[in-house]
């Protein structure tokens, strides 16, 4: 699904209405017509556009988060790395965080942990429904299988609460 799909449009509008943030959804050129790294370049071009062109009164472009899921998580990661390497060239935009939602970092061959079905070092935010009430919870998968994960309560903004 692309950034211009109905699903992502609804998600981004909901995110913008529920948080004190401006949400920008970015499309990118697709393979096989456009080979990698054109997708990373498209993402970084969007950051440069925000830095040079966009004038949003009252918006602090010095506190930008990049986010993506699946392949978009991979793209957001690489754009964040490039933004950090190009920090001197960016005048207003400063990437201060990355939200990777089940990012895809696949390779040519499966790794040992891929073959074993292990998840390592992931933080997943899930919406739990217990007794008809919605509750957010952070599930930390330290090392091992998901069923061994620890569930901890978290605030609406994803900050983990003390147990």
From TrEMBL:
InterPro entries: AB_hydrolase_3, AB_hydrolase_fold, Carboxylest/Gibb_receptor
Domain of life, per lineage: Eukaryota
Single biological process term from Gene Ontology: pollen tube growth
Molecular function GO terms recorded: carboxylic ester hydrolase activity
Domain Alpha/beta hydrolase fold-3: 5-115
Recorded family membership: Belongs to the 'GDXG' lipolytic enzyme family.
Protein name: Alpha/beta hydrolase fold-3 domain-containing protein
């Amino acid at each position: 699904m692309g950034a211009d799909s109905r699903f992502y449009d609804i998600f981004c509008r909901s995110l913008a209405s529920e948080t004190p943030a401006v949400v920008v959804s970015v499309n990118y050129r697709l393979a096989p017509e456009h080979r990698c790294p054109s997708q990373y370049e498209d993402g970084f071009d969007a950051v440069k556009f925000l830095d040079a062109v966009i004038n949003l009164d009252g918006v602090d472009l010095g506190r930008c988060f990049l986010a993506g899921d699946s392949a978009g998580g991979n793209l957001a990661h690489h754009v964040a790395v490039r933004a950090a390497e190009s920090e001197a060239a960016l005048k207003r935009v400063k990437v201060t965080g990355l939200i990777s939602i089940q990012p895809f970092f696949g390779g040519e061959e499966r790794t040992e942990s891929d073959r074993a079905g292990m998840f390592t070092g992931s933080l997943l935010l899930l919406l739990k429904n217990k007794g008809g009430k919605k509750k957010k919870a952070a599930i930390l998968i330290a090392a091992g299988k998901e069923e061994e994960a620890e569930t901890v309560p978290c605030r609406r903004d994803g900050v983990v609460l003390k147990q």
